[in-house]
Amino acid sequence: MNASSGTHAGAQAAPEAARRAPSSGWLTFAGIIILMIGCSNVISGLAALFKDDYYTVSEGRLLVFDFTAWGWIWLALGVVQAAVGVGAVRGSEWARMTGTALAVVVAVCQLAFLAAFPLWSLLVIGLCVLVIYALVSPPRGATGA
């Protein structure tokens, strides 16, 4: 092995390392939290669809819609969130943008459920804020750690 071949191998390793996407623990965190909230939303949606008295509030309506409508909303949001959570861990740009938008939508929708589940709603709103930060802070092209 001569000096020129050692230099050549070292020069080739540097661009290969530079081409690797940076990893981010924040994306892993965001993906897992989105996936967990999405699964919870699917369960909440199914509960609202199959058991009308699951959500107990005095008036029988939450903000705008009835329980069946909220069941379908939570079910649809949950399924999309589960897919976005997997995409966020993989570092997909579409998942980062969609996840940020979904986190805002879910946080606003949780305001409607403050009467039924105040602690859970506040917890999910707080997690949505963390998810938004976790999705926007890593560099472009980063993947989950």
From TrEMBL:
Domain DUF7144: from-to ranges: 26-138
Domain of life (superkingdom): Bacteria
Sorted UniProt keywords: Membrane, Transmembrane, Transmembrane helix
InterPro entries (UniProt xref): DUF7144
Regions that span the bilayer: 26-49, 69-89, 101-134
Protein's name in the database: Membrane protein
Source organism of this protein record: Streptomyces albiaxialis
Classification of source organism: Bacteria, Bacillati, Actinomycetota, Actinomycetes, Kitasatosporales
